[in-house]
Amino acid sequence: MTGLGFVLVTTFLASTVEAIEMVTIVVGVGASRGWRATLTGVGAGFAVLAVVVAVFGLALSAIPIGPLRLIIGALLLVFGLQWFLKGVTRVAARGLAGMQAGHEAEQLEWTGPGFDWTAFVLAFKGIVLEGLEVAFIAVSFGVAANQLGAAALGGVGAVVVVGAIGVAVHPLVTRIPRSLLQLVVGTLLTTFGTFWALEGLGVVWPGSDAAILGLLVFYVATALIYISFERRHALGFAPGRLA
Q1: Which of 11, 59, 25 lies closest to 127 in space, CA to CA?
Q2: DSSP state at residue 28
Q3: 81 near 216, Cβ under 8 Å?
Q4: Residue of 53, 49, 50, 28 whose CA lies nearest to 38
Q5: Can you give the residue ranges of every domain in the chain?
Q6: Tell me: the pLDDT tens digits for 3-58?
Q7: Using an 8 Å Cβ cutoff, are 41 and 121 in contact?
Q8: Burial 163-181 (b: 16+ CB within 10 A, else e)
Q9: Which residues contact 121 (CB under 8 A, 6 or more apart)?
Q10: Which of 27, 94, 153, 173 has the most CB atoms around it within 10 Å of its CB?
Q11: How many helices and strands (H and E) does the chain possess?
Q12: Which residues lie closer than 8 Å to 229 by C-beta, 6 or more apart?
């Protein structure tokens, strides 16, 4: 493989991890909160990202990403834990299938009247943070190998390919019952929020991004345990109190 091809493939693979996180947030938020505000947040995020890349260019690698990870991670954690708790309670009360009862009420809660700023902010922050991560990877790899064009192509290619996969699978995501979808999205946001917030505080995760899978398993196990407790009234509160 030539030097150019090596840089292209390496940057593509490294950027794919960040692109998956970006698309996961966007698809999850869009499917659960509605697409209008989510896509507006995506557009605003890419616009800001384009301006930042155009203004700073090669100096991007000198921008401290830690504080941004901490702020965005903390916000995702706040939203994620709220949805996680509601999702646990609703799944415990209704089961994995059920959104037949109270469908209209759930729709209003998820989409809401007017513009959904929660969906906008979550999508915007996910695009900006992960987009900057991709830009950092491309600049670092490109400058080191003197192949900035190939590195940029690899980074953009990863976002485009993973984004196309997200577009293809989103109809399947929207078929997930709302109760379960809220739990899934809450679990994902909590996972990413925990990872980014602690990383922003200087925590070095074992296995780097692979630690996200460990956090995901932990939160899934926690959700299953609490769902079981809810069903048995073991915690002393009735299932469905947040429904």
Answers
A1: 25
A2: H
A3: no
A4: 28
A5: 3-232
A6: 677 778 888 988 898 899 899 999 988 888 888 899 999 999 999 988 888 887 76
A7: yes
A8: beebeeebeebeebbbbbb
A9: 41, 75
A10: 27
A11: 8, 0
A12: 235
Spatial separation of the C-alpha atoms in residues 242 and 181, rounded to whole Å: 16
Angle between helices 148-174 and 117-145 (to 10 degrees): 150
> Which of 84, 18, 72 has the alpha carbon at shortest distance from 193?
72
- The pLDDT tens digits of the residues spanning 158-207 come to 999 999 999 898 888 777 777 788 888 889 889 988 998 898 888 888 88
Q: Which of 110, 74, 91, 59 is nearest to 200 (CA)?
A: 74
Tokens for 74?
């903390």
List the end-to-end C-alpha distance of the chain, in Å, as a whole number: 56
Contacts of 104 (CB under 8 A, 6+ apart): none
Total length of the chain: 243
